[in-house]
Amino acid sequence: MKKLLPLLFCAFFSTPFFAQTGTGIVLLTGPTHTFTPTTVDSASSFDFQLVNTVAIEQTVLFGGLNAPFALADNTPQVVAASDTLDLSISFTPSSIGAFSDTLNVVGTIFGDAMLVVSGDGIQVQLTWVSDTLQFATT
Q: In whole numbers, what is the pLDDT of the chain averaged over residues?
């Protein structure tokens, strides 16, 4: 019995380590995404997926994005083994200019990923030219 107890102890605590196969967290998109030029105070969105390649359920944590970028739901998400998670990032510029930021994704078991996002805030400018209109007299 004394020899069986340490064996069971090792088997119980090593199971999660043997279940870790794959690369962890993978974003099913390229390493960067550039939003189309977006009018100030309007929004553009980008939908993509994350896959958990670990052979066990894990919690995924998000961070790194600041305004004018926002993840639709940045709360920790539980992703089943070899399952995907739908994500959406919005870009809502409040001023004219170029913006860039990085979404950091970390799995609580292992694996991490990054997505660099960028976009331009634009403003449509209309200019009026006053012109004269003359009519001929008859």
A: 86
